[in-house]
Design a protein that fits this description.
Elements: H1 7-18, E1 23-28, E2 36-42, E3 48-55, H2 63-83, E4 108-111, E5 114-120, E6 125-126, H3 134-151, H4 169-182, H5 189-201, H6 207-213, E7 220-222, E8 231-234, E9 240-243, E10 250-252, H7 254-265, H8 283-297, H9 303-307, H10 309-329, H11 342-359, H12 361-371
The chain binds 2-acetamido-2-deoxy-1-O-phosphono-alpha-D-glucopyranose (GN1) and magnesium ion.
Length: 372
């Protein structure tokens, strides 16, 4: 877990990105589980805003490479957007940009023992932790598809692997098994339930990696972390206009992104709920998200891609539950936890979502057949 930072230290770090002017305020922003994020307001006249982030270097061990990717991705997309002039009334897609340092060359600063960066703030936009209407759900899917299209031709060799093993479920399973073998005997019924839940699904957990190894599914640039609150919607029109949090953009399976978007967008109680027994995977939201996604990215999916969509919808919440549970057994070193048992509670929610998806397998498969 990272230390908290006194306000005057935050102010002096912010000056690296703003220069000498007034810093009006620095407030925590969003609910990230890994990095620490702040919104900085500054400027002597009309206030300006930017996002200041401390990268969690226990997760991203080579933060310079994260910054390298970020610059590559935003330049690539900006170039593409500038080549396609927009029509009046059309949605204007925005790309978060890295902010150069004020006092020397570069895009990040090491200060107070941490690694900091500045990113442009997407103004006049909202993001939600829970999708509250089908229109929003459609926009979330539309935005993910739009993002996939914009990065589809980003050459892989320009991207570094900033997080090895990310979304490789068999690797998470192996980590879990090693940690579970060393952990104290399960103390609670909930822990016992999680161990059983994982064991029953372990033989299937390599489904996407097996399809990749067999050449059925292929790698392409993906976002890696498109949970709904990373999707920004225009405050007035409600249209998707940006996907933020680009630290995990790298070659992967689009299935990881589709699964992550659906697991976060189809859970009306949100991933922090303390009522796992009430968690359901909502089919209507699923239909709306997929319709939006297919509208922008449908043509890029192959027949084999379609065949593995159900598995991806089931796998990504299972994988996230497994990651939360492993972190719980391992002393909460990866995901920020506010209290004892926080990551166990989060695991229970993701496992409940997985179970709800399994219970609706026929309906979800029918929906996929209809839409694709
Ligand atoms: C982490 O920090 P945040 O909220 O953007 C995690 C995702 C999980 C998510 C679950 C790099 O993302 O994979 O889906 O928590 N990011 C990383 O809330 O591990
Ligand atoms: Mg993230």
């Amino acid at each position: 877990m990272q230390k908290s930072q006194p306000q005057d230290e935050l102010t002096s770090i912010a000056r690296w990105f703003t220069g000498h002017g007034e810093i009006a305020s620095i407030q925590p922003l969003g609910n990230g589980n890994v990095n620490d994020t702040f919104l900085v307001e500054h400027g002597d006249g009309v206030p300006q805003r930017f996002v200041m982030q401390r990268i969690n270097t226990s997760v991203f061990e080579r933060p310079e490479e994260v910054m390298h990717n970020l610059v590559q991705v935003s330049q690539h997309v900006e170039r593409k957007l500038s080549q396609e002039p927009s029509q009046p009334g059309e949605r204007l897609w925005e790309m978060p940009r890295v902010i150069p340092l004020h006092f020397r060359e570069g895009h990040w600063v090491e200060a107070e023992g941490s690694f900091w960066r500045g990113i442009s703030y997407i103004g006049a936009a909202i993001s939600v932790d829970v999708v509250s209407s089908l229109k929003q759900a459609y926009e979330v899917g539309y935005g993910l598809g739009m993002f996939h299209q914009l990065i589809a031709d980003l050459p892989s060799e320009q991207l570094r692997d900033t997080l090895e093993g990310f979304h490789i479920t068999p690797t998470y399973l192996a980590d879990y098994e090693a940690i579970a073998a060393k952990a104290a005997a399960p103390l609670t019924t909930q822990e016992n339930h999680c161990h059983r839940f994982v064991a029953e699904r372990a033989p299937w957990a390599s489904v996407l990696e097996d399809a990749k190894a067999a050449g059925e599914l292929s790698l392409r640039p993906i976002h890696g972390d498109p949970k709904v609150n990373n999707l920004m919607m225009d405050a007035k029109s409600g249209k998707a206009i940006a996907l933020v949090d680009l630290d995990t953009v790298k070659p992967g399976l689009v299935h990881y992104d589709i699964g992550d978007c659906l697991r976060s967008g189809c859970n009306a109680l949100g991933e922090e709920t303390l009522k796992p027994e009430e968690v359901v995977f909502d089919l209507e939201r699923c239909e709306a998200i997929l319709s939006g996604y297919l509208e922008t990215a449908g043509q890029t999916l192959s027949e084999a891609d379609h065949r593995y969509l159900f598995d991806s919808i089931r796998l990504i919440p299972f994988e996230l539950g497994l990651r939360f549970f492993t972190d719980h057994l391992n002393g909460n070193r990866y995901f920020k936890a506010d209290r004892e048992g926080h990551n166990l509670d989060r695991a229970l929610v993701q496992f409940a979502l997985t179970a709800s998806i399994e219970a609706q397998e026929n309906e979800i498969r029918e929906l996929l057949d209809q839409l694709c």
